[in-house]
Amino acid sequence: MRGALQDPGTNGNLSRELLRYVVSCALRPNQSFSFSWTDSSGAVHPETYHGDLAIADWWVYGPLNDPFYQRHMTACLAARTNWYGVSVLISLRSNQPFMTSAATERSSYTVREGAFWGNLFSSTPYVRSCYAPAGVARARALKRDCAAGHLNVDPGSGATTTQACGPIAIAGSCDTVCSVVNADGGYYSQCLDNPAISSWARTDMVVTSFLPP
User: Fold this and answer.
1) Where are the beta strands (DSSP E) in the chain?
2) Where does the pLDDT of residue 183 fall: very low under 50, low under 70, confident under 90, or very high at 90 and above?
3) Of 1, 47, 92, 107, which residue is most buried, by most CB within 10 angstroms?
4) Is it the case that residue 78 has pLDDT exceeding 90?
5) Which ranges constitute the DSSP H helices of 52-183?
6) What does DSSP say about strands 160-163 and 168-173: parallel, antiparallel, or unpaired?
7) What is the CA radius of gyration of the chain?
8) Cβ–Cβ under 8 Å, residues 181 and 189
9) Are strands 126-131 and 168-173 parallel, antiparallel or unpaired?
10) pLDDT for 154
11) What SS3 class is residue 103?
12) Is-contact 127 87, C-beta < 8 A?
């Protein structure tokens, strides 16, 4: 892990970016993770990443072995993934205290984009998304493609294709794979864990993303 973070090349940049989001999802705002790395010219770069959502603030003391927290961390990371690498302010909501939303936040972020769930920490890692049909156009306008998929044009046929964001498998419309929209926060309370193999096995460890109108 330390070697990946201190790699001066492209892989190091990607590893540090991932860690920044991991720390932000896992730790409290008053917690941080610091290290340094040296670039190819010998210059030392000190890094400090600060927590935010506090999903697993105890992670600093021991391994993340509990599937409950593994799944919420996965959903948080997937919801914050961006195809274009640009920063977009979003609201993340779930049925857990670490993702509650104030009325002011809900009034500012009214467009439901989609939902994310999975477990990247398991022996068979996976992560899935679904899209809220009414929010697809707004999401793409804001360069947020990972709930519905990134649109490509096949150079040979000219046909439009949809490409997933890395390992995030697109499960389809949230209207089909998720149930029970929370009346207060507007988030999906449950989604089919793997719609391809089961139409009944659901998970409630889901994070729903919202965008500004």
Assistant:
1) 32-38, 44-50, 91-93, 111-119, 126-131, 150-153, 160-163, 168-173, 178-181, 188-192, 202-203, 207-211
2) confident
3) 92
4) yes
5) 67-79, 103-108, 136-141, 174-177
6) unpaired
7) 18
8) yes
9) parallel
10) 84
11) helix
12) no
Name the 3-class secondary structure at 113. strand
Starting at the earlier edge strand, list the strands of the sheet with 207-211.
91-93, 207-211, 111-119, 126-131, 168-173
Q: For residue 50, how many other CB atoms are within 10 A of its CB?
A: 15
Structure tokens at 143: 């360069």
Instruction: Classify 4 in phi/psi space as left (phi over 0), alpha (psi -120 to 50) or beta.
Output: alpha
CA dist., res. 15 & res. 9, Å (int): 10
- Quote the tokens at residue 62: 């021991």
Say if pTM beats, i.e. exceeds, 0.85.
Answer: yes
Q: Which two tokens stand for residue 10?
A: 């492209």
Measure the CA angle with vertex 165, ends 163 and 166; round to 5°. 110
